[in-house]
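Researcher: Structure for this, please.
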Amino acid sequence: MRKVLIASGDSWTDPDYIAHSHPDMDCSWLKWPEILAEKLDMDCINLGSSGAGNKYIFNSLVDQIQLMEPDDIGYVMAGWSQAPRVDVKVRDMWRSVDPYPMDPAYSTQIIDRRGDVTHWVQESILRFYSLQEICKSKNIPLLQVQMIPLYGGYNWNLIKQSRDNADSTTDATLLQTINDSIYIDKIEDNFVGWPTESDLGGINIQMDVIDEHIISELDIHPNEKGQIQIAEYLYDKI
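Model: Predicted structure, token format:
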């Protein structure tokens, strides 16, 4: 019986990803967890979900771990998302919520405005460490990676625009938040590219690994070759 690779993440991991900018495009190519599982001679459970935040990624992995015998798990892999994203469960189904939506059509969604970006970054780091310790306690191999920037990009830019830096939070503040974390030296080598930001000597897949292998200028998600590129990069790290 082959062991199982369990992976979770956001749209960069989602096995059923739909390119909304290209609605007629077939995106059913293998994603990085399936490609890695083949390389490692394992079966794959891919829990990736478009729009997911780090709460969903953490919970989905831990729940799946609890459903299985530790000896049956060959690897747990987390492709972490943006810290500001909000995940909620409604009628036992996960929904991902943008805390600062641009589209008024989403204004009726449940929006969590508690805390700030500094808090969200701290919460994400705690989840990184917690997943590490859970897997260690069960002797389960683990690989973690920051798939897209932890706070840079779409959500953080919206927050800067909408708040006009009223709370004096800056990119430098958030770098310092990571650097001052009580977990900074407790995250182990199985987190590829820790501490995730190039200014701190870290990497994330979107900014530091993927090059021209994207769907299009309108959709910067990895195309088929991009997914292979991610898998090969992580396989080399293993």
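Researcher: Any notable elements?
Model: The helical segments are 32-39, 54-66, 117-137, 154-163, 171-179, 205-208, 224-237. The chain has seven helices and seven strands.
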